[in-house]
């Protein structure tokens, strides 16, 4: 990560339980906390995501989005924190839009509002799988695409790369991913040189 994120940038990691350990010199870690037996002292993940924006982050990373905090993550991604990320559980990259819609509903976000927020902020979805021996690996990479229909924006994750696909014809999303990488990576290299 150090090679891709300039050392001067602040990364704020927000998690239910501390697991992320990016190899970067400027990381702030926030962990949620449950309340005591009377319910006092709770610090919810959703509140931490909101508070992280007051810490002047360059990037916000939410360790695991399981509920209404998706609304705050999408707000963070749409307020100039380019290169931020979050983890979400879904059966495949293609099913991420449906999972986001379900979580957005928990946070009171309408379908059209969620679609607009996602379309403006999430560009790439990386699917990770666990092998039989317990090790995790990148299984697929997809790009978020939108089409407009009578109901509004329709979100899809188009495959761009699949583990073990070999030298077959590149999937439709590959051109979009290549374009994103061409436009984003030179900017990273330029800021590293400064």
Automatic annotation (TrEMBL):
GO terms for molecular function: ATP hydrolysis activity. Residues 2-126 form the Bacterial type II secretion system protein E domain. Belongs to the GSP E family. This is Putative conjugal transfer protein. It comes from Dietzia timorensis.
């Amino acid at each position: 990560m150090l090679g891709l994120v300039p050392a001067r940038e602040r990364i704020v990691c927000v998690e239910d339980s501390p697991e992320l350990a990016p190899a970067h010199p400027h990381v702030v870690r926030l962990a949620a906390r449950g309340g005591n037996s009377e319910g006092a002292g709770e610090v919810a993940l959703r509140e931490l995501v909101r508070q992280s924006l007051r810490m002047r982050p360059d990037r916000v990373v939410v360790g695991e989005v399981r509920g209404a905090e998706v609304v705050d993550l999408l707000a963070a991604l749409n307020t100039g924190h380019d290169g931020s990320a979050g983890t979400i559980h879904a059966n495949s990259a293609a099913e991420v839009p449906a999972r986001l819609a379900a979580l957005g509903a928990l946070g009171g976000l309408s379908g059209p509002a969620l679609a607009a927020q996602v379309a403006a902020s999430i560009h790439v979805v990386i699917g990770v799988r666990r092998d039989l021996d317990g090790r995790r690996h990148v299984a697929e990479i997809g790009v978020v695409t939108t089409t407009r229909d009578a109901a509004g924006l329709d979100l899809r994750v188009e495959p761009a790369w699949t583990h073990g696909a070999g030298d077959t014809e590149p999937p439709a999303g590959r051109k979009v991913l290549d374009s994103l990488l061409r436009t984003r990576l030179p900017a990273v290299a330029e800021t590293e040189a400064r």
